[in-house]
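As the work plan foresaw, the team has encoded backbone shapes as discrete tokens. One protein thus recorded appears below exactly as we store it.

:::
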Amino acid sequence: MARDRSHPPEAVRITTAAANRADDIATRQRRYLMSMSLRSLCFVGAIVAALAGVDWLWPILIAGALILPYVAVVMANAVTTRTDTFDLADTAYRREIEGHR
């Protein structure tokens, strides 16, 4: 099978490589811990607001404490992807390579 030489092969850029598994898991755990800490603060804040007589604040904090576990799980399971957001100016590079053939 003949190669199509009309299009040069795309270079693999290290900036688009995925992080190693241990770093990925550590990042997800940190996200989950932060979300669940915020949930705990909402719950404690709701109790304090209810005891202090702030009748409009505690329902909002309870709603936050009920919604945040879902958000925490979604954020913890979100895959971190790296995308290449720029094109390299490779015209000089190509001329240099093609000149050395």
In short: The CA atoms of residues 11 and 87 lie 11 Å apart. Residues 21-52 form the longest helix (32 residues). The two ends are 24 Å apart (CA to CA).
